[in-house]
Amino acid sequence: xxxxxxxxxxxxxxxxxxxxxxxxxxxxxxxxxxxxxxxxxxxxxxxxxxxxxxxxxxxxxxxxxxxxxxxxxxxxxxxxxxxxxxxxxxxxxxxxxxxxxxxxxxxxxxxxxxxxxxxxxxxxxxxxxxxxxxxxxxxxxxxxxxxxxxxxxxxxxxxxxxxxxxxxxxxxxxxxxxxxxxxxxxxxxxxxxxxxxxxxxxxxxxxxxxxxxxxxxxxxxxxxxxxxxxxxxxxxxxxxxxxxxxxxxxxxxxxxxxxxxxxxxxxxxxxxxxxxx
Amino acid sequence: xxxxxxxxxxxxxxxxxxxxxxxxxxxxxxxxxxxxxxxxxxxxxxxxxxxxxxxxxxxxxxxxxxxxxxxxxxxxxxxxxxxxxxxxxxxxxxxxxxxxxxxxxxxxxxxxxxxxxxxxxxxxxxxxxxxxxxxxxxxxxxxxxxxxxxxxxxxxxxxxxxxxxxxxxxxxxxxxxxxxxxxxxx
Lengths: 277, 186
Fold this sequence. Notes:
- Chain A is built from twelve helices and seven strands.
- Chain A is an alpha+beta fold.
């Protein structure tokens, strides 16, 4: 180090010594860590737009799930269906609009809504009769239309037969009754392994529960007259139970391949025929 | 223990005061000494000297902020020790780097001592620092009061390393201009 630079360091040293007289207030201030609140404000200031975009994606995702995840294929047709929303409208499109207003609807809430359809109905066929599939078979995958994957999983788990049956619930489609709007394209899978279609017409609901029953259970229920059997001649329509004074009718119908449907709604006989045939 | 309780122990001439001070501010003071000296033994001695000097100065002094008071003592002791050992061995560490940097600010032809009294210099520096934006001031002090490394300052204030460096560079330039304007010729 040269003499000149050595002198300069001496002088610099004096400055350093002078810095010892800095106000305590300034030193104390420099001790403080930036507060978490300030950091959040800084973060929001810098990434606010990104956060808003993420929030919007989350909302759209919730709406997508609410619609069963794959409605987009026929969305144009479904959107064309007239929808009248009333206080009685609990699911489907009404809830989708509610989601847009209440952005805090979580994914868990959405799943509950999907599996809650038709719970208000006092179904006649007991849950014990329904053929259940192993937990690992992933009814969620069926609900999301992920049929191939689910079938593969079940083949490996030795439950391919049940998988095919379960898939048939999701695959079993019904005509939307005239004037009604469906809440989702696919049956909403319930905890008991059944699927429930829900439609509304001016707030009036119509439910069809789709389930798989053992052959023995179907035979037993047929013998007891608890379920009707779909036939090409339309004989089953003559056996429909009478509607009550409000027009409500409830019955169970075996449609083949172990699939039994349970109807609960206010359709006329002709509308019911169109629904199942 | 709260600062006021520790200070009360000093005033009561209770030797527990030193143990409590050591517990509360031992690592803080040691980090200041270490940043100047970069020598464990010297740093420990400076910290011990700090407790002794605090014991001798309290009372009558009643520090408003004990941490700053002790830190200032440690810093001064460390600077003195660094200076006394400087001729024997040219210290490496942060102190040498810091001095090289701050030398940009001081006069080239005449000594600071000739130009202004130390007290006057302190006053000018305080005025300058008070006029700085809070963050620039804090960053500057972390560098030239605590002699912290750039990386540590960046971590402390959640800043980019280059931002810290450029902030300090700008502040040095401003200080030089300020001292020049106040009659400290560069």
